[in-house]
Write a structure and sequence with these properties.
Two copies of one chain form a homodimer. With 409 residues, chain A is of the alpha+beta class. Chain A has 13 helices and 23 strands. In chain A, strand 14 and strand 15 form a beta hairpin. The first copy, chain A, is elongated and about 80 Å long.
Chain lengths: 409, 409
């Protein structure tokens, strides 16, 4: 894509309410804009990052056999009444009524919706286990929206739900999903730690958070001296004095979570059962698995930035390459145009800075946007028959041939 | 994907309220399920079809230079008050209030949201034109939900919005988008006709519907004798007796629409302007462009089915190939397994019917699901060293070598 055409120009200033570097760069770089407080537009650059994150999540979810589907945004309130979660969830539910006076919940999580779907089918033991997941907009009526996209009122979430014939089978899958989550975050260059946690509003007995250490994070947890064990502060508060000694407090951003739900939902929702090999009805054993996509995006932005702007890791960079033509003389423009055409024909994901702007402005914008790798075309380089490739993430740069540039996409 | 693992078993019966063949097959085949009336779950098969349709739409939108982004689902009601559309739109708006008593609209269309975004930027003449689009869930508070996904209360829509410095530039782009729409529907095997229409609730002077002829459609229009001109019934009713003679009435499904908006929104929304080359502020000239993704999906289902089930065209088939092993003897299973592995390694999109079921059940399910092309493995065929390929869309079948099957993905 030609940068002269890109919607969402970079800007120099943001509102003084923006307190974090990552958020400031996302706004200034033209990735996101706030609509109402806590609700964001994703501009073309921001949506590209989100799509790249989703692609990695999808790939790893499919690898453990999970199947993607999509539930409606409006959940009939009767379903939430079946489990009595209308009065027990810790986030405030948003409700809406249609012209026929039917009430709906704007989904914060979708356990009831998934059980309501699954019970439409006659499930037998040999249909189990299965895991369904979706990417869907979630709503939380936060009293105060803080931290930009780290704690938004509306955000994209990957939420998955698994159904099992036995506790043992669930536990096997829970370990698989846990490993799958670690692979996802690794591919996104996030070092996520598994923190034992409290189940809260979801029902069930235990759950684990995936937390990336960061001072902006609202998750407080404690690690053991040898760093092999991490426990959420709520659980630590229940411990005795002796057990707590030797634990160190940390702050981090919760990018994902996995929940054991047991039969909490199938106990409460009529028909949430399968026919066992004994011919009798049994309640299925469930788990649920979330990843905050918007929060993951902003965690990467907070973690990987310097005093000039963002530094996208390879897995989430909005484009693979940022092609920058320095200067306006026809030789440079021609060479850059040709390279851009060649890369595009190969299907490369390239942002081409074709704007008639000074070298200083172009570099400042490139630093701000932070595409993983950039390719520079200049008269000086052309005279020597090379291009310069600079990795924004690592800072490394070197001169390469045209063939080598082409081989990068 | 192995069919034994696929969530959403085919079923033999549907509710008597389901009146159309396409909808019946979508439900029975495990593509969709209704949640509350007019709101649907997309099961894995249905979501795959939707994703394929979106990919074609995205490809053609990008080709005309449109840029994908995403606006929040909840629109601040103040924006709709700026244009006074809260009291003028023809579909009933759904409203929701948060715990701080702020009111929002559940978006039916997003003109105000896009203008509110664009006016956050200092736009000059040389930034124009641009076109932004999104795939987003839309809400219509229909009094009665009829026709399944043909007229749903919640549905995915591709909505695009273009901004221009002049009427002439808008008209050029309007023609481009119009051609792009015809390419999209052609790739989906839909013969869409352009119908001159009334602008309705959108503001602006004129618009065009893209209509696929079908008796289930709610669009009534008239065609001239030579079929070169098609006019919406509302416009025909304004014509004189003489003009109307020679016009024939038709019914069709409106799968897309394009609207001239002119300066209707920029006249009403403060700051909806750009700096012209004369240094002065001007209002931008706008257009908007919709495609109902869910409706397009169900139109294909209604159009392409027979008495046994669905017949997906190539462009929207949930999988490219349906691999079917007939019989349970180990030779057949081994050959089918091997072919499945080979096709999967090549990145082929294959549904593999590995279930231990009778030939009759497998064929009945394959006919119902209607994947574009199927590959049959049987003892009789293996003895002659061939596979049978049958095109469900055209009905043609022939025997092919393993090499030829592999070359199809």
């Amino acid at each position: 894509m030609r940068q002269s055409q890109l919607f969402g120009k970079s800007t120099r200033a943001v509102s003084s309410e923006v307190k974090s570097k990552g958020l400031e760069y996302l706004i200034r770089g033209g990735f996101i804009r706030e609509s109402s407080s806590g609700r964001f537009y994703l501009l073309p650059l921001g949506l590209r990052v989100q799509e790249r994150i989703c692609a990695i999540v999808e790939d790893e979810m499919n690898r453990v056999g999970a199947q993607r589907m999509l539930a409606p945004v409006l959940h009939p309130i009767e379903l939430w009444e079946e489990t009595n979660r209308t009065s027990s969830v810790s986030f405030e539910l948003m409700r809406v009524r249609d012209r026929s006076e039917r009430s709906f919940v704007l989904g914060g999580t979708a356990e009831e919706m998934l059980v309501a779907l699954v019970r439409q089918f006659a499930i037998s033991a040999k249909d189990l286990p299965f895991c369904l997941y979706q990417f869907s907009t979630k709503f939380r009526d936060e009293l105060r929206a803080r931290g930009g996209m780290l704690r938004a009122r509306e955000f994209l979430m990957k939420d998955g739900y698994s159904f099992h014939a036995s506790k043992e089978d669930f536990e096997r899958f829970y370990r698989e999903i846990s490993e799958s989550y670690l692979r996802i975050f690794k591919r996104l260059d996030l070092l996520a730690r598994i923190v034992e946690s409290d189940n809260g509003y979801m029902g069930g007995d235990y759950c684990h958070e995936f937390v990336v250490d960061h001072s902006l994070g609202e998750s407080r947890y404690f690690v053991s001296h040898d760093e092999t064990k991490a426990i959420h502060e709520d659980l630590v508060n229940k411990m005795g004095e002796a057990e707590r000694s030797g634990l160190t407090e940390r702050a981090g951003i919760e990018v994902g979570n996995i929940f054991q739900l047991g039969t909490w939902y199938s106990d409460r929702m009529k028909g949430a059962e399968f026919t066992g090999s004994d011919g009798k009805s049994h309640r299925y054993y469930m788990g649920c698995y979330g990843i905050g996509i918007g929060r993951t995006l902003s965690t990467i932005a907070e973690l990987y930035s310097d005093d000039r702007g963002l530094r996208w890791p390879k897995g989430s960079s909005p484009f693979s390459l940022h092609l920058i033509a320095l200067g306006q003389d026809s030789e440079v423009i021609e060479a850059a145009d040709k390279l851009y055409r060649g890369l595009s024909e190969k299907g490369g994901s390239v942002l081409y800075d074709d704007r008639e702007l000074s070298v200083g402005v172009k570099f400042a914008d490139a630093d701000l946007i932070g595409i993983h790798e950039r390719v520079i075309v200049s008269r000086r380089l052309l005279e020597r028959g090379v291009f310069e490739v600079v990795n924004r993430f690592t800072g490394e740069g070197r001169e390469v041939s045209e063939g080598e540039v082409m081989s990068r996409v």
